[in-house]
Design a protein that fits this description.
The complex is a heterodimer of chains A (430) and B (330).
Chain A: H1 2-21, H2 24-28, E1 37-43, H3 50-64, E2 68-74, H4 79-89, E3 96-100, H5 104-109, H6 122-125, H7 130-136, E4 137-138, E5 141-142, E6 145-149, E7 152-157, H8 158-163, H9 175-185, E8 187-189, E9 192-195, H10 207-214, E10 221-222, E11 225-226, H11 231-247, H12 249-258, E12 274-278, H13 281-288, E13 294-298, E14 310-312, E15 314-318, H14 326-336, H15 339-349, E16 352-353, H16 356-365, H17 368-380, E17 384-386, H18 396-408, H19 414-427
Parallel strand pairs in A: 1-2, 1-3, 14-17
Antiparallel strand pairs in A: 3-15, 4-5, 6-15, 6-16, 7-12, 7-13, 8-9, 10-11
Helix pairs in contact in A: 3-15, 10-11, 15-16, 16-17, 18-19
Chain B: E1 6-11, E2 14-19, H1 21-29, H2 34-67, H3 84-91, H4 94-125, H5 132-144, H6 148-157, H7 164-171, H8 186-195, H9 199-210, H10 214-223, H11 227-255, H12 259-264, H13 279-288, H14 293-321
Antiparallel strand pairs in B: 1-2
Helix pairs in contact in B: 3-14, 4-8, 4-9, 4-11, 4-13, 5-9, 9-11, 11-14, 13-14
The chains are: A alpha+beta (430), B mainly alpha (330).
């Protein structure tokens, strides 16, 4: 009797296990009780600030019609895209997902994302900044819709400017002025720096941004051609190395190791007087740096008139390959990237949105310092370059960065480093 | 209910159940022998594990072996490309060499250092001193803590100017390096971090040391052996099976180092000048950043072969120095 029971028990366990694996529940969950199609929307916006904003937009959409119900799924940064890939491969992806703006072509090439061309006409395209729309096109088709973008600005401490005898209404306009101002803003106590005027690699900016800035806005790969080892880029690296030499390796490392965000941010804490960051850095300044009197300006130009080139990033919304409800998903995407939703996102986040009309409308709603920073960032989009990763060189960053690192660490010269990087990347062409 | 008929027999050692012969006949008439039934029940009971193993371990394992000969990218491609992935590792991928070098460097230093560290600690904690339990707990504690929180703690400790490590060096007039920011010092910093958690190995050594018979030490005392001689001629051979086990498992573990570098370097990039780009991190980047799953699979299998060979060598060498009490070592 006992043995018989054991066998029966084991069989039940097995059935339970198999039932647990099956996708029965999923099929039921695709429609709500009142018959609306459920569209699953994956984002990484789970923070206290962002989550309510995106959820309000979703609620507004859900209330605006009676065919689709959008369900928000939050996945942490870093996990979201690995999970997306796995679910695309398994044939059971989300319906809409927020993804990186610079790698749309990669996903199109690898068939991880749906072609949206059939839903998109020219009048729709024209709603967005052209430099953003370019990133979502691949092989003449559109694979995503731009959602937001960013640009880099120079934040400077006006109080420190006054102390150093500089005009707080005249931020540095060129690299030469930047150096001159920075030296005046340094405060040294014996060997130790108490305040550093400026260091080009701190903030949301890297060597590549300065190299682009010097090189008339040209990136490392322009129209499929490598443009890594150019005289201007070599010069930019030497310029960065000079900064490091002047401040000393120890000062740079010591400062850098202690950087944090919010109150511990060195610009907010008054330890660094000029700081390059994205427009939304303003929210930290507003919330944690009430006493900081600051101004914003475009990144200084390499020389007068050469352009205040800045690097841009951002996110798109797209439909993963194999999504069950592409039509409904696209309806939601259109709402998400239209004026009302984009304006709301923009006003609440001070974020640069992709929809031109929404960006301009947001400007009219803002006031005071909110408006000052937002206006500067919108204006800066004209001098912002996107660097979508070319499909021929999917991992060129991993080849380039170590060489740049080595040159900045003094292990090799910028000339040799960039020459080597160009050769390495050439070899990896697909 | 014939099958439940049984006789309770009282014996000298207690009582046991003897089933009647009818039971066996009943089972046979149902078509399955008792043994087959027992086996079936056994397999059914372990079936969750069996299914898990076949579906979640063996299946993917074989799949990745197959994928290593293709240009599989998870979503669209899976063309057979022969040994191209393996060739690419040795002829085209500089980062492969860097990552292999970094990993081997880490293995070469971390395995002997942690083994020796654990033994020394175990010897110290094997003394009969009051309050020893407290110290044993304290030294074991870091082995319990693990994961990302510990790496963040170490990032604070290793901070160049305000970190505790450099502050303490400063007391002795030594200016500490920038640790995780200086490519020359990143790997030593990770080794130092690893030493902190030798408590796990220590516990194993402590357990086996407690089992070494005191008569041997007494005999050695009578012969006038020094503490060092006692350690070298008695303790070391007696704990050699655990040393053997520890060396093999920590070698395998060290080859798989990933988390530390992924968490502690900017964006999981592998640190300044790729000084912390370990084999598994490079493999992960290929798999999940570039989606070159075929190439990553090939890397995984090469690592498997390397670890297999090294373990086989260890096993072979182990016969020479591992002492099994009461056995011939086989």
């Amino acid at each position: 009797m006992k043995r018989g029971l054991a066998v029966i028990l084991a069989v039940f366990m097995l059935i339970g296990l198999l039932a647990g694996c099956s996708g029965e529940q999923k099929a039921e969950a695709e429609k709500t009780k009142d018959g609306k199609v459920i569209v699953d929307f994956w984002t990484f916006w789970g923070s206290e600030t962002r989550r309510p904003i995106i959820e309000k937009i979703i609620d507004d959409y859900n209330n605006s019609q009676d065919k689709v119900f959008v369900k928000h799924t939050f996945l942490p940064w870093g996990d979201i895209w690995t999970k997306n890939l796995a679910s695309v491969a398994a044939g059971n992806p989300a319906d809409v997902i927020v993804n990186d703006i610079n790698t749309v072509a990669q996903r199109a090439e690898n068939k991880q994302v749906e072609d949206l061309s059939q839903y998109i006409d020219d009048s729709f395209k024209q709603k967005f900044y052209p430099h953003l729309w370019e990133t979502v096109e691949y092989d003449g088709k559109s694979y995503a819709v731009p959602f937001n973008t960013d640009t880099r600005l120079l934040f400077y401490n006006k109080t420190a400017f006054k102390e150093a005898g500089l005009d707080p209404e005249k931020p540095p306009a060129t690299w030469a002025e930047l150096e001159e101002y920075a030296k005046k803003l340094d405060i040294k106590n014996g060997d130790k720096y108490e305040r550093v005027g400026f260091y080009p690699l701190w903030g949301s900016v890297g060597a590549s941004s300065w190299m682009t800035n010097a090189d008339d806005g040209n990136g490392f790969i322009e129209d499929g051609e490598l443009s890594i080892n150019t005289p201007k880029k070599v010069e930019a690296m030497n310029w960065i190395i000079d900064w490091k030499k002047r401040l000393g390796e120890k000062t740079v490392q010591a400062f850098q190791a202690e950087f944090g965000s919010e109150q511990a941010n060195p610009f907010i804490a008054g330890k660094v007087a000029m700081w390059v960051d994205v427009g939304t850095f303003y929210t930290q300044l507003r919330d944690y740096g009430q006493d900081v009197e600051f101004g914003v300006a475009p990144i200084p130009a390499y020389e007068e008139g050469s352009g205040n080139w800045a690097e841009g990033g951002g996110f798109v919304v797209e439909i993963p390959k194999g999504a069950k409800h592409p039509e409904e998903a696209m309806d939601f995407i259109k709402y998400l990237t239209d004026v009302e939703a984009q304006k709301h996102w923009s006003v609440k986040n001070y974020d640069n949105v992709a929809n031109i009309e929404a960006a301009e409308a947001a400007l009219n709603e803002l006031q005071g310092p909110d408006k000052m920073v937002y206006e500067a960032s919108v204006k800066n989009l004209e001098q912002t370059k996107m660097f979508p990763v070319p499909v021929e060189y999917p991992d060129y960053h991993s080849r380039l960065n170590p060489h740049i690192d080595n040159a900045l660490l003094g292990k090799t010269t910028p000339e040799k480093a960039l020459k080597q990087a160009e050769e390495d990347i050439e070899k990896m062409k697909k | 209910m014939k099958s439940s008929e049984s006789t309770l027999v009282h014996t000298e050692t207690g009582s046991k159940v003897i089933r009647g012969s009818k039971t066996i006949e009943t089972a046979r008439t149902k078509g399955l022998s008792r043994k087959a039934k027992d086996n079936l029940a056994g397999y059914l009971f372990i079936s969750p594990w069996l299914i898990g193993f076949l579906g979640l371990t063996l299946g993917p394992l074989l799949f990745s072996l197959a994928a290593s000969f293709t240009d599989y990218n998870i979503t669209s491609k899976m063309n057979f490309i022969g040994l191209d992935n393996y060739k690419r590792m040795f002829t085209m991928d500089d980062l492969f060499r860097t990552s292999l070098f970094n990993t081997v460097y880490y293995v070469i230093f971390s395995v002997p250092l942690t083994t020796a560290g654990a033994i020394v600690l175990a010897v110290l904690l094997n003394q009969k001193i009051k309050g020893m339990k407290f110290f044993r707990t304290i030294y074991y504690l870091p082995a319990v803590l693990s994961g990302v929180a510990v790496y963040f703690l170490w990032m604070q400790l290793l901070s160049p100017s305000t970190g505790l490590v450099n502050t303490m060096l400063g007391w002795f007039g030594i200016e500490g390096p920038a640790w995780l920011f200086d490519p020359e010092w990143t790997k030593p910093a990770l080794l130092m971090m690893k030493m902190w958690s030798v408590g796990g190995g220590m516990l194993l050594y402590l357990a086996i040391m407690q089992g070494v018979s005191p008569q041997m030490y007494e005999a050695a005392d009578i012969e006038g052996a020094s503490p060092w001689q006692k350690f070298y001629y008695i303790t070391l051979p007696m704990i050699s099976p655990i040393i053997f086990f520890d060396v093999i498992t920590s070698t395998i573990g060290a080859f798989q180092i990933f988390q530390e570098a992924y968490v502690m370097t900017e964006n999981g990039s592998g640190g300044p000048g790729n000084s912390l780009l370990f084999y598994n991190l490079h493999m992960w980047n290929n798999a999940f950043e570039v989606f070159d799953m075929g190439y990553a699979s090939a890397m995984a299998w090469l690592l498997f072969i390397i670890v297999m060979v090294l373990t086989a060598v260890n096993m072979k060498l182990g016969k020479r120095w591992v002492h099994y009490e009461g056995g011939d070592g086989k």
